[in-house]
Amino acid sequence: MIVRSPATSPMGRLQAVWDDKRLRYPLVAVIFALMAIAPHVLGPYATVILTNALLYVVLCLGLNIVVGYAGLLDLGYAAFFAVGAYTIGIVHHVLGLDFWLTLPLAVLAAAAAGIIIGSPTLRLRSDYLAIVTLGFGEIVRLSARNLQITGGASGISGIEQPWLFGWHISSPLDFYYVFCVLAVFAVIASLRLADSRLGRAWLYVRHDEDAAEAMGIDRVKVKLAAYVTGAIFGAIGGAFFAVNLSAISPESFSFRQSVLVLMAVVLGGMGKIPGVILGAFIVILGPELLRDLGDMRLLVFAVGLLLIMLFRPSGIWPRSR
Amino acid sequence: MIWTILTQQLINGIVLGSFYALVALGYTMVFGVVKLLNFAHGELYMVGGFAGFLVLSVISGTVGMGWPAVAISMLLAMIGVGFLGVIIERVAYAPMLAAPRLSILITALAVSLVLQNGALALTRGQYVPFGAALGFGGLNLGPIFISNNQMILVGTAALLMVGLELFVSRTQYGRAMRAVSVDKDMCALMGINVNRVIAVTFFLGSGLAAAAGTMAGAYYGSLWYFMGFLIGLKAFTAAVIGGIGSIPGAMLGGLILGLLESFGTLVPGVGSAWKDVFSFSVLILVLVFKPTGLLGKSEQERM
Amino acid sequence: MALLELENITLRFAGNTVLDGVTFSVEARSIVSLIGPNGAGKTSLFNSITGFYKPQAGAISFDGLQTLRLKPHQVTAAGIARTFQNVRLFRDMTVLENVMSGMHCRTKAGAIGALLRLPSQRREEALIHETAAECLDFCGVLEDRSRIATTLAYGHQRRVEIARALATQPRLLLLDEPAAGLTAGEKEDLIALIGRIRDERGISVLLIEHDTGLVMRISERISVLDHGVLIAEGKPKEIQANPKVIEAYLGQDDGGELEL
Fold first, then answer.
1. What is the pLDDT of residues C184-203, one digit of tens each?
2. Cα–Cα distance measured from residue C224 to residue C40, given in angstroms and rounded to the nearest whole number
3. Cα(C35)–Cα(C79) distance, rounded to whole angstroms?
4. Given a contact as 3+ CB pairs under 8 Å, which chains touch C?
5. How far is C218 from chain B (nearest CA, A)?
């Protein structure tokens, strides 16, 4: 189903610019320039919000691989976010290792979690998978809240912020730039994965599992690859989140967090990278703009999600596949 | 001494299991006819609780706040939420049945979030006291105490379940429900009004969840916007244990889960902090090793 | 030893015996047809061969390999490819992407290769593109390669599905009612294509087909299935004259006629 906006509408014009290769690169250069100067123009408060949005870009691109490419409804994505963050926190407290040495451990931990959770459950039909992933998300959060090593309900604090070649990454501005880089890496990784044998396999399995199997594609292995890749994105986001705040607590890794990431992916447009980025910004900036609504903010998002599903399930950003 | 503890936990387990069973029934019935796990089902329990609370606050002036008032509130809540369930099905799910699976699952999630966050907005996230005055009387059997409330609760749940069972096995709609859950398209060809059967199923399932919600509000004394989330997962676990799609399975599963949780708190180290982790682990183990549950049927899918 | 050998295959579904003691074989480089009235179990036999159904009894061997317990993707990797009765191309994907799926089991680049764009990964991608294009060309639908698969005319979609199956580099190709819905001209092209698949690629073809004229023309051997039982097997002329076969077809209201 090709959902293209009319060529004269704003969305259609934006899409036309993106599709035209000669215009795309200048557009990207402009975006980079804007990202670089934004903190200086918008001030410290906005910088923090933008940093959160960029974190969400990383998380949403990760979940996009699981949900958007492979079509697996994961309602417990925050678990991987938690694994990344807590690995940094725990290893720092217990072993005092440098952040850059711990980061690979966080990635490995997330991959292991993905394999352990995914192997028995990815064979299940999609409804069951959704609830099982939800259950795992809760298990991870509750374990983080109950165990000693994770600091219990108050979590872990005093996480040391990293040094990179003499640059102490500690101020909000520093972390803003770090997350810019992470977001760019996440986009490049997503693009490369999408345009590859594995990326295509995800689409085949999502479109028609049985036909994919008939073509020689091991659907369980392919789904597991999506799940683990998504887990790694989440863990990297979590690791940098931990050092950014210097403290973590179980409440950041609840079902609400998983749902928010999912909402961003769906609202923006599952499977399409610009859509997912747009969704991330909507979900983070939206509550800021809707500040006055207080407790109603989440309700607004939920209603938005329902309306999108009923009337424009491909998301806000127009899809061409 | 140990027998006292065990028996007390047995009673707690049965009470808990009644709640789980009532909510699990809705899950399983809906899954039977539309092959969908209704994510929003847990929220209907929560809405049922609030609906009961609203009715009670209106009628308590005239009817008081004891069990009769709660019963009336419960019945009205069941009817109201029953209709809500039908509306949700018509507006949100029916258009999605032909779309890819992922879409309807996300839609169901969206409905549940709307209900949940709607309640959040209305209550500002606070616990709301239910406002029933149920008394503290009960039965003393030696060292064991069974409260009147517990007996009424279990009795009511049992009554509702018997009523449902009779409906499914004796009435035309009930037979139609069973037929639709076996082969929907064939039923349509045979002249059964499938849409109406689906509507009735949603009505009943939602009504049972609402009954459980009202009773929970009365029994535990307060309501919270988030209470549907947890019960939804637990009820799903119960339905899966018993065999999704099987009505006796949901009742059995509910009871088993209630007992498992109750006795589970006695295991040293588990305690109440880990109670939920315990239940979720059971869910995952059942789905991985015996996805058809105790009373469900094994099926090899025909392509 | 034949390329594909089925021995005593019995398949039951909830009390129904769909296949009953079917013994059957396909030689290398040959074209065999499987015919029979509707509901005889032909597609179920295909599903059993390709690993989607698991017969309760019997054995299947493909070039010496026991395939009964294998998963579908393993059967394909072993060299058996198929098309479906109702064309199952991947919706919303281009024709070329559809056919590229066949090369998945013949290549191995994973996430790391994709992320780092290793030379071996780039070579594989080129190979995948080339092979897919080549299969499309072989089936005469190369010019459609950038179109969304489901926008093609029905006859073209069928050929894309065959190209997709060919991309898996099979030695045995299972075609499930490939002529259904085709015009007379398209059927002629199909006959030629099936012949070329055997002659130019050395691939055996096993087809389920209701168009008995077509079946008579291209088959070297024909097997007839009725109510899950193999009632006859032999050369086309033998089958035409076989009284059991005639009865099986004439006994049905919906059976095709055996044209002479």
1. 999 999 999 999 999 999 99
2. 9
3. 23
4. A, B
5. 28
Any chain C CB within 8 A of the CB of B298?
Answer: no
Chain mean position to CA A264: 9
Contact B96, B172 (CB under 8 A): no
B267 Cβ contact partners less than 8 Å away, ≥ 6 residues apart: none
CB distance A261 to A233 below 8 Å: no
pLDDT of residue B299: 53
Q: Kindly report the nearest CA distance between residue B237 and chain C, in angstroms.
A: 27
The reported pLDDT for the residue numbered A186 is 96
- Residues 6+ away with beta carbon under 8 Å from A153: A145, A249, A250
Q: Are A131 and B99 an interchain contact pair (Cβ–Cβ within 8 Å)?
A: no
CATH number of C1-79+170-260: 3.40.50.300
Tell me if A120 and B284 make a contact (CB, 8 A cut-off). yes
Please report the pLDDT score of residue B271 as a whole number.
67
DSSP alpha helices (H): ranges in chain A? Answer: 10-19, 21-42, 44-63, 78-95, 99-121, 126-146, 172-194, 197-207, 209-214, 219-245, 255-268, 273-289, 296-311
Please list every residue in chain B whose beta carbon sits closer than 8 Å to the beta carbon of residue C53: 300, 303
Give the pLDDT confidence of A69-123 residue by residue, as tens digits.
999 999 999 999 999 999 999 998 888 888 999 999 999 999 999 999 899 888 8
Other C-beta atoms lying within 10 Å of the C-beta of residue A93 = 16
For chains A and C, what is the number of CB pairs under 8 angstroms? Answer: 105
Q: Which of A197, A207, A211 sits opposite C104 (nearest CB)?
A: A197
What tokens were used for A121?
A: 């459950």
CATH of domain B2-134+146-289: 1.10.3470
Q: ipTM beyond 0.95? A: no
A28 Cβ partners below 8 Å, 6+ apart?
none
Q: Does residue C199 sit in helix, strand or coil?
A: helix
Please name the residue of chain C whose CA is at the shortest distance from the CA of residue B302.
C53
User: For B230-274, what is each residue's pLDDT tens digit?
Assistant: 899 899 889 988 888 888 899 999 999 999 888 887 777 666 668
* CA A285 to chain centroid: 16
Nearest CA in chain A to C102: A215
Q: Who has greater pLDDT, C250 or A2? A: C250
Q: Give the residue extent of every domain in chain C.
A: 1-79+170-260, 91-169
- Chain B residues inside the 8 Å CB shell of A127: 36-37, 101, 105
Using CB atoms, pick whichever of B96, B121, B280 lies closest to residue A138. B280
Q: CA-nearest residue of chain A to C109?
A: A197
**What are the structure tokens assigned to B264, written together?**
């589970």
Residue A144, both tokens: 């983080």
Rounded average pLDDT over C10-21: 88
Q: Which domains does chain A have, with CATH numbers?
A: 44-311 (1.10.3470)
Residue in chain B nearest C14 by alpha carbon: B299
Chain C within 8 Å of B300 (Cβ-Cβ)?
Answer: yes
- Asked whether the beta carbons of residue B303 and residue C47 sit closer than 8 angstroms, the reply is yes
Structure tokens at C165: 């199956």
Sign of CA dihedral B26, B28, B29, B30: positive
Confidence of residue A125 (pLDDT cuts 50, 70, 90): confident
User: Residue C130: how many CB atoms within 10 A of its CB?
Assistant: 11
Question: Which amino acid is present at C39?
Answer: G
Q: Beta partners for C205?
A: C31, C173
Q: Tens digit of pLDDT for each residue in C203-236?
A: 999 999 988 889 999 999 999 998 899 999 999 9
CB pairs under 8 A between B and C: 7
Residues 121-140 of A with CB under 8 A from B: 121, 124, 126-128, 130-132, 134-136, 138-139
Q: For strand C4-13 and strand C16-26, is the pairing parallel, antiparallel, or unpaired?
A: antiparallel
Distance from C-alpha of B201 to C-alpha of B196, rounded to nearest angstrom: 9
